[in-house]
Design brief:
The chain has 88 residues and is mainly alpha-helical. Helix content is 59%, strand content 0%.
Length: 88
């Protein structure tokens, strides 16, 4: 684990590790940089579960526009969206 990453990014990276055994050996840096859709880290059901877990853990609610945001496909981008939502 690399604590130099923001807490949101680490939380999401750990969520992926916990929900995809294939990622157990991946570093935080690798998971955070990846496009998790393109890399097949998650399927459509997993997205629904992830959204619910993120919303519950960070006390936010995503909008339809958030799902269309290009940043939504990477851990780093998703963390940016979470931080923006938490500020509003």
């Amino acid at each position: 684990m690399n604590s130099n990453f923001p807490k949101e990014e680490l939380w999401i990276a750990n969520w992926f590790r916990g929900n995809n055994k294939r990622l157990a050996g991946e570093t935080d840096r690798e998971i955070i940089a990846a496009d998790y859709f393109a890399m097949d880290y998650i399927d459509s059901f997993g997205v629904i579960v992830m959204i619910g877990d993120v919303e519950a853990s960070f006390g936010i609610r995503f909008s339809e526009l958030d799902f269309q945001d290009r940043r939504f496909s990477t851990v780093k981008g998703l963390a940016e969206i979470i931080r923006e939502k938490a500020r509003t």
